[in-house]
Specification:
Number of helices: 4
Strand content: 5-15%
Helix content: 55-70%
Order of helices and strands: HHEEEEEHH
Radius of gyration: 36 Å
Strand order of the largest sheet: 2-1-5-4-3
Low-confidence stretches: 1-6
Mean pLDDT: 80
Distance between the termini: 51 Å
Largest sheet: 5 strands, antiparallel
Length: about 240
């Protein structure tokens, strides 16, 4: 425990890196959580609003009007799955309109809203789907592809990893710089101590510009050496 708390350039660098990573985590985790919740809420609200618009068309104008509206919006083409997913079925879940051929296997027919994967044959689309049961037993499945948001999430994660890497590199560079500075000042102290041990009491620690801790220590040691030299000269006399 005591050895791990020794004052050294390595410990300073590791402490700097640890504190920086903790600070980055304390900043990134709430931001990530808020961003994720906001994205999911906005996506849910958009899906609910678009679904309700189609429900209103069915209630006001009937089955044929809803089929026409869906055909205008998605055209029944699989390519549109990357934007909007719609499936309008009769009470037996037979397709009447939309760009899905059949009801998704991974989405229970009794479910209300969920995020699932849709296999189109040549690719898999990840989407959030909302199920509405219409008057007369008809079913409306509406959803949007979440791939765009997943890409944004990955970019966010890559950004955090990059920031952590930069902090780590800066910590290593800072630790090496501190080590070099410390060793330079310690080398001056060692040279002075060696000269004094060899009998050269006139040798003094170099004092650099500024008022840092090392200069305060050097000035204190120099005053001590002045006093020692004065006392020894007195004894010699």
């Amino acid at each position: 425990m005591i050895k791990s708390l020794r004052f050294s350039a390595l410990n300073i660098g590791l402490t700097y890196v640890s504190v920086s990573l903790v600070a980055l985590a304390l900043f990134a985790i709430p931001l990530w959580y808020s961003w994720r919740i906001t994205i999911e809420q906005n996506r849910t609200e958009v899906i609910q609003a678009d679904t309700q618009r189609l429900v209103d068309v069915f209630i006001a104008q009937g089955e044929e009007a809803l089929s026409s509206a869906i055909g205008i919006q998605v055209g029944g083409q699989l390519e549109t799955l990357e934007r909007t997913i719609i499936l309008f079925t009769d009470p037996a879940f037979v397709k009447r309109a939309g760009n899905l051929a059949v009801w998704p296997n991974d989405f229970p027919k009794s479910a209300h809203m969920a995020t699932t994967s849709i296999d189109t044959g040549d690719r898999v689309v990840r989407a959030t789907l909302l199920h509405k049961t219409l008057p007369g037993g008809y079913h409306l499945l509406f959803g949007r592809d979440t791939g765009r948001f997943e890409k944004l999430e990955m970019l966010f994660i890559y950004g955090l990893i990059g920031a952590a890497g930069i902090v780590l590199l800066l910590g290593i560079a800072g630790g090496l710089l501190i080590r070099r500075t410390l060793l330079s000042r310690v080398h001056d102290i060692n040279q002075t101590a060696s000269a004094i041990m060899q009998g050269n009491l006139s040798h003094r620690l170099p004092v650099h510009k500024g008022e840092d801790e090392f200069n305060v220590l050097a000035e204190t040691e120099n005053r001590m050496l002045d006093q020692i030299e004065y006392l020894i000269d007195g004894i010699r006399n």
